[in-house]
Amino acid sequence: MEQISIIGAGHAGTLLAVGLAGAGYDVRLFSDKDAEGIRDQTSPTGTAAIFADSVATEIRLGAADYSGQGAPMDAVHLFFSPKVGQELIAFGSPLEEAAGLATDVRLKSYDRMKQLAALGGDIQIETVSMDRLDQIAAESALTVVATGKGGLSSLFPRDAARSMYDAPQRKLAMILVRGIASDGTAFSNRLPGMTPVCFNLFGGAGEIFWVPFLHKSGEQVWSLVFEARPGGPFDRWDTVTDIHQAFATAKALIQEFVPWDWPAMANMEPLLDDPFSWLTGAFAPSVRTGSGVTSGGHPVMSLGDTSVSYDPICGQGAGSGIRQVGQYFDAILARGDRSFDREWIDEVFEAFYSSHIEGTYRFTNTFLEPLTPTGVRVMTAAFADPRLRGPLLKSFNRPPSAFPWLAEKTETDKWITHHTGRSAASVVARGNAKALGAMIKNTVKGENFPRAEATEIPSRMLARNS
User: Fold this and answer.
1) Which domains does the chain have, with CATH numbers?
2) Phi/psi at 269 (nearest 5 deg)?
3) Where's the Styrene monooxygenase StyA putative substrate binding domain (predicted)?
4) 213, 176 in Cβ contact below 8 A?
5) Contact 372, 318 (CB under 8 A)
6) What is the 3-state secondary structure (H, E, C) of the chain?
7) Are 197 and 51 in contact (CB under 8 A)?
């Protein structure tokens, strides 16, 4: 079969390589590090949480299924404070058929590079420059660039008409920790018996959340994510230079701003045996073009973060990349006698943009911005009626499905009535009454959200740092 070259050995590039090699294609994968180098000498590129549809796509393309190897991401729960100190809205729901997991991308890349080699794929270890990319594209029937937001991504111009931002909206930080129970006992103040994504949303300040995370070693840990509005109270990461400072900053922010979860996290420790287990950064959430042209005039195709960068607030980047791989894979197999020319590349990318990127980018930005009156109506209704919580939170699995009801009041009201059998006005009124009660309680007692209980952590979970 024709040779297909893939530049970049992240979770998207390696998944496409494994899928195509398994389908009989001659695949070349280019990476600046070998499998061991990626596993042992790099940081995870975020939490990489994915929901059910993306998990199914990985399995369909022949990659390893990590379900059952660690704690599932089986629910979503949120605490919402319109401003810091005002504990107002709290609700969550099991994800059921939409449940997913967060797996270290370093483990995925390592496993898939080994799998690709076993399938007969050609793995080239080199840093690909623009000139080298031109040579590769000249030799290949199709060249796919999956190198992330930097480097070769400049070959794919930012689409100003589709990109809402031209500057970072958050300063980002992530650190992995052990010492938080992962058996469903940790966050008894949220959804007892489950291991949810635990959101804490603060109007005007940013977001802080935790995700159950399968580390590259096979250890179940938690990923702590901090999204700071520039200049806000969480914006403390600029001077952090090592894992000790990162952990100290994370701990201080949790104790000060998320006291309701702290009892379950008091025994947490940084992963000192993995000095790369933290990162900081900032980027503008943007959509790029699906095709680019090398200096020699050869068309190349973007994939994953090279195509679109989502703010991590809704955990959509990894899942979108996997879905994109699935759609590219299907299009390649269904191509017939057509050439991999720029027209074909643009056609395939536009189909994915219409079916997924457009709605997912909009979904993410809805939560990145201050909530619109319609967004407040949705949240208030879900606060009032548990029957709305599953439909709302399961939309994280299929973000485009949240529209138009997340954005248009008439459709919101239809959605509320459809799931509750009650008039939207009555549900929202009940939610407003609950919110008023929460405000009064918060004013009188100084708190409103339920507090977690301290949990006993087996010593074996903390032994690696001793």
Assistant:
1) 3-63+103-165+285-367 (3.50.50.60), 75-100+166-283+455-465 (3.30.9.40), 372-445 (no CATH)
2) -140, 150
3) 148-260
4) yes
5) no
6) CCEEEEECCCHHHHHHHHHHHHCCCEEEEEECCCHHHHHHHCCCCCCCEECHHHHHHHHHCCCCCCCCCCCCECEEEEEEECCCCCCCEEEEEECHHHCEEEECHHHHHHHHHHHHHHCCCEEEECCCCHHHHHHHHHHCCEEEECCCCCHHHHHCCECCCCCCCCCCCCEEEEEEEECCCCCCCCCCCCCCCCCCEEEEEECCCEEEEEEEEECCCCCEEEEEEEEECCCCCCCCCCCCCCHHHHHHHHHHHHHHHCCCCHHHHCCCEECCCCCCCEEEECCCCEEECCEEECCCCCEEEECHHHCEECCHHHCCHHHHHHHHHHHHHHHHHCCCCCCCCHHHHHHHHHHHHHHHHHHHHHHHHHHHCCCCHHHHHHHHHHHHCHHHHHHHHHHHCCHHHHCCCCCCHHHHHHHHHHHHCCCHHHHHHHHHHHHHHHHHHHHHHCCCCCCCCCCCCCHHHCHHHC
7) no
Amino acid 140 reads S
Query: Tokens 């790029």 label which residue?
Result: 288
In a structure prediction context, what are the per-residue pLDDT tens digits for the chain, which is 466 residues long?
789 999 999 999 999 999 999 999 999 999 999 999 999 999 998 999 999 999 999 999 999 999 989 999 999 999 999 999 999 999 999 999 999 999 999 999 999 999 999 999 999 999 999 999 999 999 999 999 999 987 899 999 999 999 999 999 999 999 999 999 999 999 999 999 999 999 999 999 999 999 999 999 999 999 999 999 999 999 999 999 999 999 999 999 999 999 999 999 999 999 999 999 999 999 999 999 999 999 999 999 999 999 999 999 999 999 999 999 999 999 999 999 899 999 999 999 999 999 999 999 999 999 999 999 999 999 999 999 999 999 999 999 999 999 999 999 999 999 999 999 999 999 999 999 999 999 999 999 999 999 999 876 655 555 455 4
Q: What are residue 302's phi and psi, to 5 degrees?
A: -90, 155
